[in-house]
Design brief:
263 residues, alpha/beta, Rossmann fold
Length: 263
Amino acid sequence: MASLKGLFDLTGKKALVTGGSRGLGLQIAEALGEQGADIILSSRKAADLETAAEHLKQRGIVVDWIAADNSKEEDITRLVEQSIERLGRVDILVNNAGATWGAKTEDHPIEAWDKVMNLNVRSLFLLSQQIGKRSMIPNRYGRIINLASIAGLRGSTGEIQTIAYDTSKGAVVNFTRSLAGGWGRYVITVNALAPGMFPSKMTKGTIDQIGISKLTANVPLQRIGDEDDLKGATLLFASDAGKHITGQILCVDGGLTAVLSGS
């Protein structure tokens, strides 16, 4: 029987975190690294990755980075090859890279729809497929954590009009469930975090436009997420503490989905 501390220990594990140079991805990387995992961060911009890696190194985390645009299949293939070359294998994959687009549905550009779907759904499938085939399935071990959203669990109306994003995150939810069903035989768990409102580059416009008071009016805890609120849930899914949990969607939203109908 393992100790509770041992169940959450990630010493020796190898993790790839996409969209890891800032915001939720960097918070997740901090959590994994502080528990002992070796980290590779990925995002499009090398300068941002250098800054993020230095931040993690100052916390005693072993980290490297690879610049890649996950909207391009050739970049995904390169990211997988270089990650396995540097780490030896990938035990934990965090699919965090994503995009959004705000527009009225009747005016939503098809190019923007395709951009969101390509990055939020297609790239997530391709990266998971390649990491699974090249590392996790042969090793009969893996932890895949997808970043969904509460927007993927219910419809939205009013001031926030992000139909492509909402639809893509709904796809992430069922992708998580389906992949968990298919890959459980390989001792791979697949789960998703569904954050509510967190401060990030992606949400800054919404927060500035609507305001935190209005955004939290129906939230039982009366707050948005902070720089630590995804860490505990991430460790549960990434560690042996969650080895019997797969295909699950965990809302980290201050209780919002608990009180809204249709969730």
